[in-house]
Recover the amino acids of this structure.
């Protein structure tokens, strides 16, 4: 089943099972994307830039030698070709089709994106224009929704409209957020009238890592390990299809005109605020765990993340936009008000109000931020340990994992010898757990963990 009401697209548990069956039985999950690209290049050698239907099928015969397996996979793979062949010409653009096909192959998200970027870079200058970026993103969404056979006839046109609206808006947002004026490597690509004309893969990657992932989270699904291919789901079989409406897995969301556009996020936030109250009053059993991690070698101590935790975290990021603030800026601003290694509540409020791009902060947002502070105030002293607090608070900032871990390490390296002794203390590592579980109200849990270190 495929859903695209109100410009939201989703894949169900049945679609997930289809993908698992497809990549597992065909062994495409073990085929490197780069190898698949080479095979498709041969398929387009007679018609540069275009892969005819017959040549596509010939490439599939090489990629999937077993005739019986290929026949079983044909409906889904043929559907990918048909959805990419929007004009019905029996031929697809080489770059778009092959980029879309990457979904079924082995490899990380970054490797697939990098190679797909080159495929859409038709003039080989290492850059994509806004139109090329639109086609780049469109290819991946097309692949995701080729997994469903529920859209046919007129509904295909509706799907095209939603996918196009979403990816055009996203491409526009990317260029707008990267800034107007000369391109990143100088003004050689900037038109005389001003305005960015193209971007490099590194610029796109930097935009994505600094908050773009929140706009296009479905891009993470290019890495097959990110899909919920659990044995329970795969063994559910036909019986689970009867409960598809109850077990739908929200695998991707593509916001159309509102994606980064004027007023789009505000409308979604208002709707979300109205829905949150109802969710909290609903049955807790519906909030099934999404992820579970052991927190210590001892049995029985786990960090559990449920959909409500993810929603709370996402809401806080959306309403503060701290994900746009550099981690070094966050650290520097808080360290300016440090008092004997601690942070007072008053200074916390002043710094967060100044750091957040969204002003003024609403009362619910202020309370949510205050709850993070509360999670670290374990002795009711009116202050928190600055290093522990900052290390946790960096989860809200821009930057990648490595940058944040390095900064956090330095916060505990009191003698600047490059050896963060404090980091090795279990108590010093519990800041992350305390930050997350605070969204579930488990302050006492974090408290006990810290006291265990003495």
């Amino acid at each position: 089943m495929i859903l695209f009401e109100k410009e939201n697209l989703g894949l169900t548990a049945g679609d997930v099972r289809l993908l698992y069956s497809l990549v597992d039985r065909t062994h495409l999950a073990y085929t490197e994307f780069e190898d698949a690209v080479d095979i498709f290049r041969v398929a387009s050698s007679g018609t540069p830039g275009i892969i005819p239907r017959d040549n596509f099928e010939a490439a599939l015969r090489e990629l999937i030698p077993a005739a019986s397996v290929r026949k079983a996979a044909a409906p889904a793979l043929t559907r990918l070709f048909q959805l990419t062949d929007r004009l019905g010409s029996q031929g697809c653009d080489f770059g778009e089709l092959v980029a879309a096909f990457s979904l079924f192959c082995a490899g990380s998200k970054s490797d697939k994106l990098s190679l797909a970027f080159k495929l859409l870079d038709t003039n080989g200058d290492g850059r994509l224009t806004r139109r090329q970026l639109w086609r780049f993103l469109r290819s991946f969404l097309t692949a995701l929704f080729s997994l469903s056979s529920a859209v046919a006839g007129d509904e295909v046109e509706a799907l095209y409209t939603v996918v196009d609206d979403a990816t055009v808006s996203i491409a526009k947002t990317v260029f707008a957020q990267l800034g107007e004026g000369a391109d990143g490597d100088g003004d050689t690509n900037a038109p005389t009238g001003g305005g960015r004309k193209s971007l490099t893969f590194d610029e796109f990657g930097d935009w994505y890592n600094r908050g773009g992932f929140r706009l296009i989270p479905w891009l993470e699904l290019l890495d097959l390990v990110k899909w919920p291919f659990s044995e329970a789901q795969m063994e559910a079989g036909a019986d689970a299809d009867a409960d598809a409406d109850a077990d739908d897995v929200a695998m991707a969301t593509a916001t159309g005109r509102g994606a980064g556009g004027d007023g789009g996020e505000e409308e979604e936030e208002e709707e979300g605020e109205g829905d949150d109250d109802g969710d909290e009053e609903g049955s807790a059993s519906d909030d099934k765990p999404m992820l579970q991690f052991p927190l210590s070698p001892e049995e029985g101590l786990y960090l559990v993340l449920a959909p409500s935790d993810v929603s709370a975290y996402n809401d806080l990021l959306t309403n503060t936009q701290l994900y746009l603030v550099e981690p070094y800026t966050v650290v520097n601003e808080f360290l300016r008000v440090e008092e004997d290694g601690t942070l007072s509540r008053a200074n916390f409020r002043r710094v967060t109000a100044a750091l957040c791009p969204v002003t003024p902060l609403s009362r619910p947002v202020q309370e949510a931020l205050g709850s993070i502070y509360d999670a670290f105030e374990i002795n009711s002293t009116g202050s928190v340990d600055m290093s522990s607090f900052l290390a946790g608070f960096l989860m809200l900032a821009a930057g990648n994992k490595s940058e944040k871990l390095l900064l956090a390490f330095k916060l505990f390296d009191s003698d600047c010898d490059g050896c963060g002794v404090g980091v090795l203390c279990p108590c010093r590592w519990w800041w992350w757990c305390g930050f997350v579980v605070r969204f579930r109200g488990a302050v006492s849990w974090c408290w006990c963990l810290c006291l265990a270190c003495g």
In short: The chain has two domains: 2-228, 291-451.
